[in-house]
Structures are given as C-alpha cells and as structure tokens.
Design brief:
five-stranded mixed β-sheet; 18 strands; Hect, E3 ligase catalytic domain fold; 3 domains; four-stranded mixed β-sheet; 47% helix; alpha/beta; Rossmann fold
Length: 563
C-alpha cells in the first residue's frame, strides 16, 4: 500500500519473547519493557502500521517452534504482514543458523522488512557490506550465550541429581514436593495409602488387572486425576474421557518404580544438544541413582520381591482373580524349565498336577514327570515351618552371641589386632622401599639387597594373609550383631503356618524344584530353595565358630530343604 508521496506503508507484527530457561529475566528484557521500547521507536516511523503484537513468554530462542512465532509466519504467508519488529536479534532467536536463514533468505525472498531496534538493524536501510559482517557475528554471540546457559543448567541439574535432589516437574504419585524445599519429596499420605494397597494386593496374589478393577469399583482417583484435584497443572495427551480409569499399566508402573523404597533414579533421558529437543534414552550405567533420598512408602524387601514377581511368567487361572500360591516358583529339577499347573477331570472329580512344561511342549525334551498339586503344597508347608523354626532358633542363639561379644569385647579386640597388623605391613613396606637407597649409597651389597628384599617381601605377604583372616573374622562378628532384624524378621513375622499363602511363598521361597521319581522311590523328590540362603549360611558359620554355637544344633537346617 502506498501514499500519494509514493511512500510504502508496512504492516508490521511486533515480536516479543522472554525465556525462562536462558536467563532472560532481567527487567530490561521483560515483555512490558520490550513493548514500550518498540512503541517509542514507532513514534518516529510513519511508514509502519501495527498489525498484531505476538508474544512468546517462557519460550527458548533456540528453535522456531514457538506459538506466537509460528502465528507471525502464518501472517507473512497470508500476505497480511510485510514487516517484523523486535527489540533485538536475541529476542527473534538465538540459533545463529536459523536466524541467518530468515534474515538472509526467507525474509528477502518474501519481501519482508526486518527491524532489530537495539542492534540498529533495518533491512530496508541496511549497509549490506557492514551487515554481512556484523549481523552474523551478533547472531553467533547470541547462539554461544544460549549454549553456555544450556551447559550451566545441565551441569547444575546433574549435581542436584547426584545429591539426591528431585528435579522433576511433578512429584511421583504418593509424594508431593516439600513446601520448604521444592527439591525434596515428602509422603502424601492419601495417595501413599493407595500405593501401599496396590503392593499389598499384588503380594497377596492379585493380578495387576484385578487391582485396577478394584480401584475403579471404589472410584479411587487415578494418579492424573488426583494431581489435578490437588491443583497440579499436570497434563497428558493420552486422556480421552472426562474421568480417567485405572488400568493394569498404571498398576505395573507403580509396582515397578523404586521411588517407593526411597530411591531416586533420574536422568534416564537427555537431548543430543541444546538445539535438538528430541529425547534419547541414556545407557543405564549413566543414570543418576540416589538411595535413601526421601522417606520410603514401601519396605525395600517388598520392592525386591515385587521386582522378582514382575519378571516371572505368572498367570491367573480361568475365572480366577488371584495368582496361584506357587505360580512362577515351581521348576523342573532336571531341565530347569517351569512346571505347569494342569487340571485333569476324572468323573465328578478334578485332579490338579504340576507337569514339566518343557516336556509338554516338546516330548523329546526332559521326561513326563509330574506331582500332585495338593501333595506338593503340603510338603512345601512342612518344609517352610521347619525353616521358620530353624531361623527362629538361630535368632535366639545369635542374640546370646551378641551379648557374649559385648561382654568379652571380642570385636574391639580384633579391631585392635587389625590396626597392629596394618602397622606391621606399613613398616616392612617402608623398609623394603629404603633398601634401594641403601644399596645406591653402598651401605649394603647387591647380595644383601636381594636377600633383604626377598625377606621383607615374605613378611609383607604373611602379614597381609593374617590381616585378611582378621578382617574376615571382624566382618563375621559384626554381621552377627545385626541378625536379630532384617532377613530373620522376614521369617519370624509369619510364625507357624497353618496353610500356604501367596505372600508367604514369594517372601520366603526362591524356587521349588521337582525332580523325576527314580526307580524304587515312591514320590518325586522336592527341593525347596529358600531366600536369604547366603545370610543363613553366614549366620550358621558364625554360630559354629563360637563355643556356644557348638552346643546348639537345632538351627543347623540346610539352606535347600529336601523331601
């Protein structure tokens, strides 16, 4: 559009941007101040009319995927705008390649006038030779500034993650950000109770599908709806209904999250650089893991059991709401494959067996051995009660040993011996080290040097062997002092069992092996491998090494019980 004086009138979009990430929070860069500066500039520009004011508040200038920026481009494509005005080049963008492409190719091609006020740049009145040097240089500086800020932010976040600070936008379900410290998580009791219930039901044998159904039946809010009800700005593009429903995916996500035992795992994903926003997954050894970063909702032992169960191939039977008590733990003792639960109807009765799954799939693999499910469960119950009794007796003996160690000062005595042994090793190492100087100064002959070097070497090796024995003994003694809690309590908390339950099986049994019945045997051989086998053996060794332990044989049950 032109006036009678042949002066071209430009229709301009004013573009304003402020980033939350790149540090552009100074008062001079506020949206208000950018707007005022441009309005003041336009008072002397009679050939420019304002079409729209486009504002991207809280967007980085690294890429052009900004809502207002894209709207401005649509105005240009539609022919509504032929001029863009911004406070300076950094407000337009901080990617020197992108900014250069717009200034040197796209805008000139579309006949768009570009004005950056503080950089004294107006494409309609530019000094081409000067601008070809200065403008790209300024864009490069803006780009470098953004890169520097990105590196600083990444480094700061990495330090926080390693310290155990929570740096996520939203707290995991069951927690909330502390009001006093946004990088600390604290338990949200209302949601935490739902988390406890999910773990409890799963350990008792309920499937993830059944848990989700139960939560939906009781109108328990999903994590997303719960966060929204509490005032969170949480949003996901997956929501389709006004009120979302629990699914087995929600349940499995909660069951598989170590955050509920107080462990923070962060930094799983990253971006290639500050210009590319596409997320890429890091290798697991580069994740940031901080243990005991916050209060646990679920005991670590239960988390570990659940992780094992999630790896098992367990299914509910037809019309069943719960997993069978022994699902996933019964194995063939010969080929190592799973034993499959099979129901065989006979008249008005049904007989249930466990058969070798490998043989069932391929007759050439393993043999067709099986075991009656009822007999197996009865045998496992007997062995479990025996193991619980052995561990309970062990707890009593270890308690006496602990008292003996306190009274005799055995642990302190051995620690003093370790200190002396280390001093002895250090002394011989120094003597051997000084031998060469003595030889060089001709204080000893070459033969004496070789002989003394060998002698000191033997003494060092002997002392190191003695130190290893002492340290092993101290470790054994120290381990005994804490055995009245932890894994022993895992057995003690169930007491004498009248019947099996899914929770007992997954808490105390690693696997059950069924061996083929040999000639002359009436029943297949059952081998139960209990959890905490290494701890059991260590405690047993401790008891046998002490005088009191030799008089107590009741707890000497094997870690793998057989029937």
């Amino acid at each position: 559009m032109e006036t009678n004086l042949n002066t071209k009138i430009y229709n301009a979009d004013l573009y304003l941007r402020l980033s939350k990430e790149d540090g552009d929070k100074e008062e001079s860069d506020s949206i208000t101040n950018q707007k005022e500066l441009i309005f003041e500039y336009l008072k002397s520009m009679e050939d420019i009319r304002i079409h729209e004011i486009r504002v991207d508040d809280g967007y980085s200038g690294v890429d052009s995927e900004r809502p207002a920026f894209q709207q401005m481009l649509e105005d240009i494509k539609a022919g509504k705008v032929d001029c863009v005005i911004t406070k300076d080049l950094s407000r337009f963008g901080r990617n020197h390649i992108e900014v250069g492409r717009y200034l040197e190719k796209i805008f000139p091609y579309l006949g768009v006038r570009f004005i950056a006020i503080n950089d004294n740049y107006d494409s309609a009145m530019s000094d081409t030779q000067t601008d070809n040097i200065i403008i790209p240089f300024k864009n490069l500086i803006n780009d470098a500034y953004c890169r520097d800020i990105s590196i600083k932010i990444r480094s700061n976040l990495e330090v926080k993650r390693k310290k155990g600070d929570f740096v996520g936008a939203f707290a995991p379900y069951g927690y909330r950000k502390s009001e006093g410290d946004k990088n600390r998580l604290e338990v949200d009791e209302e949601a935490a109770e739902t988390v406890r219930r999910i773990f409890r039901m799963y350990l008792q044998g309920s499937s993830a599908y059944r848990i989700a159904e139960a939560l939906n039946e009781e109108d328990v809010l999903t994590p997303m709806d719960y966060k929204k009800e509490k005032g969170s700005a949480f949003y996901t593009g997956f929501k389709k209904n006004l009120k979302s429903q629990w699914s087995h995916v929600h349940v499995l996500r909660i069951l598989g999250n170590p955050v509920y035992m107080g462990t923070l795992i962060q930094g799983k994903n990253t971006t290639p650089n500050y210009k590319v926003k596409k997320k890429v997954k890091k290798e697991e050894d580069k994740w940031c893991m901080a243990e005991n970063a916050h209060e646990a909702i679920i005991p670590a032992s239960n988390i570990r059991i659940v992780q094992e169960l999630l790896r098992m191939d367990t299914r509910t039977g037809t019309a069943q709401e719960k997993v069978y008590d022994l699902s996933g733990v019964v194995r063939c003792g010969d080929c190592g494959g799973n034993m499959v639960r099979k129901t065989v109807p006979s008249g008005h009765k049904k007989f249930i067996y466990y058969v070798c799954g490998s043989h069932k799939a391929d007759k050439s693999v393993c043999s067709s051995h099986s075991i009656n499910a009822e007999n197996l469960e009865e045998s496992v119950l007997i062995l479990l009660n025996k193991q619980i009794e052995s561990v309970t007796d062990m707890d009593h003996i270890l308690g006496q040993l602990e008292e003996m160690q306190r009274q005799s000062g055995e642990l302190a005595k051995r620690n003093r011996q370790i200190v002396k042994k280390k001093e002895e090793i250090r002394k011989y190492c120094n003597l051997r080290l000084n031998l060469y100087e003595d030889y060089k100064e001709e204080l000893i002959t070459k033969e004496e040097y070789s002989e003394l070097k060998e002698t000191y070497g033997k003494r060092i090796r002997t002392a190191e062997q003695g130190l290893a024995v002492l340290e092993e003994g101290v470790e054994l003694l120290a381990s005994g002092l804490g055995y009245t809690c932890g894994w022993i309590n895992e057995f003690k908390r169930f007491g004498y069992l009248d019947s099996l339950s899914r929770e007992v099986v997954v808490s105390l049994i690693d696997r059950i092996c069924i061996h083929e019945k040999k000639k002359g045997e009436r029943y297949p051989r059952i081998e139960v491998r209990f959890k905490y086998a290494e701890e059991f053996e260590t405690a047993l060794s401790l008891i046998e090494d002490m005088p009191l332990g030799r008089e107590n044989k009741r707890c000497h049950a094997p870690r793998d019980s057989l029937l």
